[in-house]
Automatic annotation (TrEMBL):
<protein>
    <submittedName>
        <fullName>Enoyl-CoA hydratase-related protein</fullName>
    </submittedName>
</protein>
<dbReference type="InterPro" id="IPR001753">
    <property type="entry name" value="Enoyl-CoA_hydra/iso"/>
</dbReference>
<dbReference type="Pfam" id="PF00378">
    <property type="entry name" value="ECH_1"/>
</dbReference>
<feature type="compositionally biased region" description="Low complexity">
    <location>
        <begin position="281"/>
        <end position="292"/>
    </location>
</feature>
<feature type="region of interest" description="Disordered">
    <location>
        <begin position="268"/>
        <end position="292"/>
    </location>
</feature>
<dbReference type="InterPro" id="IPR014748">
    <property type="entry name" value="Enoyl-CoA_hydra_C"/>
</dbReference>
<comment type="similarity">
    <text>Belongs to the enoyl-CoA hydratase/isomerase family.</text>
</comment>
<keyword id="KW-0456">Lyase</keyword>
<dbReference type="InterPro" id="IPR029045">
    <property type="entry name" value="ClpP/crotonase-like_dom_sf"/>
</dbReference>
């Protein structure tokens, strides 16, 4: 094992900019974790580059949806084990520029294309996406119980909401490996495809969202779902009523109706950069407040 592998750092010959590749496919941005020799194991440099690219995508009006996948045989095999060896010495001393659940706060739709192994933190990153496509052959596991760890980064909040409490506990306590088709059956992922097709299927789905759905509507609905999982029904209805009245004043409603009547594709305005949304309540669905 090389010194770079022992420390969890990127190989010397690999630029930090290359740890996550960015490719535009029309209005869809494809982000690819790119440490294939390590099954895209997670380290701080990869995280920083990934979050940086998500920030850029959030503020780029030409990007309307984001697909996340892995290079080579894996999606992400979890935290780099070399890095884990020194975590206990640094516990409580690291300061992150963004919260670990940052991907959930991105206003644009994020779609995971799980092309291969997704373990531990790698599985969590897939669950932080809004929708998941998965290769039938992909192996998924929580892994934490077999490493003496706990359900990290809000996994204990996300997992029961996807698969139910008992299945969540099964996956957490046993750390057993499941394949894509079982993951779809229990609700952990949304769609399955052959390994060679999973990325194209995810991109096609994202491209349909980009072409036909209002960016403002999608951002607003993402935050509604996150907030309302922790509110009572009447609160959710009241907030929805207020947002509905607001939406009637927006050009997106007029364009959505006109495009339907005229039988043409809609031409919705792009989502404004985050700073502009934050500065105007009409363009800023409430920030994600649900834990993740």
């Amino acid at each position: 094992m090389s010194a770079a592998e022992q420390t969890g750092a990127a190989p010397a010959e690999q630029s930090t900019d290359d740890l996550v590749l960015a490719e535009r496919r029309g209005a869809v941005l494809v982000l690819t974790f790119n440490r294939p020799d390590r099954l895209n194991a997670w380290n701080n440099d990869l995280e920083n580059r990934y979050f940086e690219l998500l920030d850029q995508a959030e503020d780029d009006p030409e990007v309307r949806a984001i697909v996340v996948t892995g290079a080579g045989r894996g999606f992400c095999a979890g935290a780099d084990m070399g890095g884990l060896q020194r975590i206990e010495r640094a516990a409580g001393r690291s300061v992150r520029p963004r919260p670990r659940n940052f991907p959930r706060a991105v206003g644009k739709p994020t779609i995971a294309a799980i092309n291969g192994a997704a373990a531990g933190l790698g599985l969590i990153e897939a669950l932080f996406c809004d929708v998941r496509f998965c290769a039938r052959e992909a192996k998924l596991t929580t892994a934490f119980a077999k490493r003496g760890l706990i359900a990290e980064y809000g996994l204990s909040w996300i997992l029961p909401r996807l698969v139910g409490p008992s299945r969540a506990l099964d996956l957490l306590l046993s750390s057993r490996v499941i394949l894509g088709e079982e993951a779809e059956r229990i609700g952990l992922v949304d769609f399955v495809a052959d390994r060679d097709d999973v990325l194209d299927a995810a991109v096609a789905y994202a491209a349909d969202l980009a072409a036909n759905c209002s960016p403002w509507s999608m951002a607003a609905m993402k935050q509604q779902v996150l907030r309302h999982m922790d509110t009572d029904f009447q609160t959710a209805v009241a907030e929805s009523d207020a947002l509905m009245l607001e939406s009637f004043e927006r050009t997106d409603v007029r364009e959505g109706v006109a495009s339907y009547v005229e039988k043409r594709p809609p031409a919705f305005a792009p989502l404004a950069p985050r700073a502009e949304r934050d500065a105007t309540t009409s363009d800023a669905p409430a920030a994600a407040g649900a834990p993740a």
